[in-house]
Amino acid sequence: ILLETSGSYGIKHADHTKCHLQTDLPLDTSIDSELLSYYAPDHVLQRFPPILLLCGGIDPLLDDAVDFHTRLRRANVEAHLLVHKSLPHGFLGMLALPTPFRPPDALELARHAVRFLARAAPLVLIPPTADVA
Fold it and tell me: Is the pLDDT of residue 30 over 80?
């Protein structure tokens, strides 16, 4: 069982603090859709703003991204899913790596996300930098 902090994935430890990587903990596995939009009911999804989902093609959560994108589209939400075949889970974190080790495709998707956000929130000024412009 892979768990992070309580609430991040809608799974809470009995005392509502941190979960640990153990299988013998008493867990409350009820889903809190306010913490985990993946499980939100359709009437909540219908109020979502435009969404861009980025996913690597070798990400173990790719199926979840496709499922969530499908649910958003069925709820008439403007939703876009970009999948890059060679990127793993957490590829945006690789942007912090030195240039020779940084996957160029990760930078390409990050730039796409910045453009999407700039269109979605035009009043927010995003200063260009060498890595994101």
Answer: no
pLDDT of 123: 58
58 token code pair: 């070798």
State how far the Cα of 102 lies from the Cα of 107, in Å rounded to an integer.
8
Is the pLDDT at 126 greater than 80? The verdict is no
Are 49 and 76 contacting, i.e. CB atoms less than 8 angstroms apart?
Answer: no
CA distance linking residue 5 with residue 102, whole number of Å? 28
- pLDDT tens string 71-121: 999 999 999 999 988 888 988 888 888 888 888 788 888 899 999 988 877
Amino acid in the structure at residue 15? D
CA pair distance 15, 7, nearest whole angstrom? 12
Instruction: Quote the longest CA-to-CA distance of the chain.
Output: 49
* Centroid of chain to Cα 108: 17
CA distance 25 to 80: 38
Residue written as token pair 């927010």: 124
The pairing of beta strand 51-56 with beta strand 27-28: unpaired
Measuring CA to CA, which residue among 42, 118, 51 is closest to residue 80? 51
